[in-house]
Predict the structure.
Amino acid sequence: MAHPLRVIISGGGTGGHIFPAVAIANELRRRRPDTEILFVGANGRMEMTRVPDAGYRIVGLNISGLQRRFTPQNLLFPVRVFRAVRKAGKLIEEFRPDAVVGVGGYASAPVLLAATSRAIPSLIQEQNSYAGLVNKLLARRVNRICVAYEDMDKFFPADRLVLTGNPVRTEIAAGNRAEARQFFGLSPDQKTLLVIGGSLGARTLNLATAAALPRLREAGVQLLWQTGQLYFPEAQRQAQAQPGGNLQALEFIQRMDLAYAAADVVVSRAGALSVSELCLTGKAAILVPSPNVAEDHQTKNALALVSKGAAVLITDEHAPARLYDEALRLLADTERQQQLSARVQELARPNATTAIVDELLALISIKN
């Protein structure tokens, strides 16, 4: 009988890192129910609450990112990294993992450095179409790099690359339209727009949406507007101030399967998780990449879809003036919605989580 596996999954910071990590853990548990899984995150970051909510144990490192501009904090960065690598090494010695997975985020690098220095099988899951700096630096140390986009050999050694796609909950595409409209209290017949700004919310999308509320009401468009915690109170007040319209501001949408099913058109940032979900759900989408991310990777994610005629791109700079002109045009053009939907579905990789776990188990098997 195979011995129970021990696996460390490291990283986090945003939902775009956390949700794939949990999906990998869930698939591991499904395949090998006796697997012991330890998450390692960064203290004070989102993963420290979201991972326990998903039913897994997590340990935090005192690590944060390097500021893009010079600050006194940057002088302490090497010290923080050294201490984080040392603590990660102690965790590895105590937990004795069969393999380590890095999904990106502050905690990923120290754990992978500690693991690879001990010859522990290691795998990186790169979600974006433009590789992050940490993953590029670690590429020659790890055994396998699972990617979501083609042509990633410009960043990583080709012999370690596997094109798997991004882990997405397959149930995200299982929502029923009629059930979804009823769940959110929406009319079954009116056009519906879903606006999602990522797990932390998006200032530009929120401001543009707030300004467009009268236009949406006058056009008879229903709105599901995921605002994030910071913007929610004001957004809720603004939405409720529009009489006669079904314009809903929501701090967080738990049932994203139903939100996607209810929508005719989606306005979204272009984080890796959002893009992968749009591909799987086959939704006509307008992407507004965040400019506040490393290497402008959201624009590159969006262009990977736009180049195949699978989405519309509006820059953050132009969103205040152009976003809702485009959204209302697309909502009125059913044929164009269908074209975008068909093309984006061609890019979906619904078996990504299974493929990543296949690679992980193969690495463990080779070691053993």
About this structure: The CA atoms of residues 12 and 105 lie 5 Å apart. The chain has 15 helices and 13 strands.
